[in-house]
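To: structure desk
From: M.T.
Subject: fold request, one chain
Message: Could you run this one when you get a chance? Sequence is below, nothing fancy, just the single chain.
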Amino acid sequence: MCNRPLLFAILALLALAGCVRQPLVERVAEHPLSGVWLNLDLEITYNYGTDSARVWYVAPGRWTDSLKLLPIRTYFRPDSSYTSDHYRPDSSFWFSAEGRLELRADSVVLVQSRPAAGRYPFAYSVQGDTVSFSGLVDWDEDGTWDDRYVGRQVRQAGR
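Reply: Done. Structure tokens follow.
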């Protein structure tokens, strides 16, 4: 004999189970920067747009010679948080920069919370597994955001 109220209750529970919200991280659509990225190269143009502009370029494979650190490994997460890990040439950990992303179609603001608070706006574009960032920064720490940063990062496979 079939117990209709019990059958109805079971079917209702199954239907409701399909409506249960998933955890936030699983519901957030992945943005184009999601993943693990390794710095490839960077170019700094000091005093950009002036007669005294000069360029400094760190080529792929030259990070240890030029910056005395390994290429920075950055984790951009689907929840819009990020961590950039910095390692010395001997692979010992140096420090992490952490914060969140304010992502637009072609620009991003890195809102850094650690080690020091700051806002770093960049234009970006993704071509395959390479992302390019560009924007004005105060690289020479002279108090003026007049140094143009252009850096490329490569997405790490399987990360």
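Reply (cont.): The chain is about 15% helix and 45% strand. Let me know if you need anything else for the meeting.
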